[in-house]
Design goal:
This protein is an all-beta fold and about 300 residues long. The chain has one domain: Beta-galactosidase, Chain A, domain 5 (Distorted Sandwich). Helix content is about 5%, strand content about 50%. It is built from 1 helix and 25 strands. The protein is globular.
């Protein structure tokens, strides 16, 4: 197990030839690989664009099995979007808005601890992140501690699985989070993908037509099309664990110039109890060619 603190941040780690999943220290974060193939980059340090939209604690790029970059960061249409991320528009204490983690307003994150270990050929990344706001204790104290576990599986056939377990621990009473305060209610686990013109959406066997507001479907969403280099077929499946707080199967979907979002909790904020963390679990299946509903179900249950 490797434990990284700010003091030893520049340690180089690589188990190439010794294990399936490898982690390599790079400027700003960590690149995860399987042998010579890149899987994703985790952004540990704060990153901004011309001094604005500072963000960290997200994944970009996410790579397809053939090495295609699948995600976008700082897209011109929504500069706050960033690869694979989890964020909330409304973060309130005593019903007062103190941060907008989605649009990165009055929102500061700091990765205070990170550890990487190998388990039966899988890579496990554990992170601890503080959330702060200049509107809360002058930004000197964190109001929430996030502990996230990312499990990276070796490539299996034509796909790779990546699991996320996000634990949100309130550090003060009367803390709540919510989506956008409109009929869309988006926020939560999201993917800003480079969308091909032929992108399609399937939940189990059902074709899903994106709407302006959230669509209720199954707990998996297959986003498929000519995602890969050379116009080859591929895609990303997002799976929301049914054990997640309701709603766990509400989807904001877009065919162009936007993100794909498991919309939780919607426009009405929900409290995070002071004595009990909120736990959210999601998975990604990143694949080339195609994945049938049967393959997706089998991959999730493995």
């Amino acid at each position: 197990m490797l434990k990284i603190t700010p003091v030893i941040l520049l340690i180089f780690l690589s188990f190439i030839g010794k294990a399936q999943i490898n982690m390599i220290v790079k400027p700003g974060g960590f690149l995860f690989m399987e042998k010579k193939d890149s899987i994703f980059f985790y952004q540990r340090s704060a990153k901004d664009k011309n001094g604005e939209y500072s963000r960290c604690n997200y994944i970009h790029p996410l790579y397809g099995p053939d090495g295609t970059r699948l995600t976008e960061d700082f897209p011109a249409d929504h500069l706050h979007h960033r690869g694979i991320f989890w964020a909330w528009h409304q973060i309130l204490i005593d019903n007062k808005l103190i941060s907008d983690g989605w649009e990165l307003k009055n929102f500061q994150q700091k990765v205070t601890n990170l550890e990487f270990m190998l388990q039966k050929g899988m890579g496990v990344l554990n992170t601890t992140v503080e959330w702060k706001s200049p509107l809360w204790e002058d930004g000197k104290k964190a109001y929430l501690k996030e502990d996230t576990k990312i499990t990276i599986y070796p490539l299996t056939g034509n796909y790779r699985r990546i699991d996320f377990e996000i634990r949100l621990k309130a550090l003060t009473d009367r803390l709540s989070i919510g989506g956008s305060a409109d009929e869309k209610g988006y926020s939560g686990f999201s993917a800003r993908l480079k969308l091909p013109e032929d992108v399609k959406f399937y939940s189990d066997k059902e074709a899903i037509d994106p709407q302006n507001t959230a669509v209720v479907a199954k707990n998996s969403m297959n986003i498929t099309g000519s995602f890969l280099n050379g116009g080859k077929s591929g895609g990303v499946v997002i799976w929301s664990n049914p054990e997640n707080p309701a709603p766990s199967n509400s989807w904001i979907l877009r065919k162009s110039a936007s993100m794909q979002n498991v919309a939780f909790p919607g426009r009405n904020p929900v409290a995070i109890p002071f004595d009990q963390p909120m736990i959210l679990k999601y998975s990604l299946l990143v694949y080339q060619d195609t994945m049938s509903p049967k393959q997706i179900s089998k991959a999730i249950k493995q």
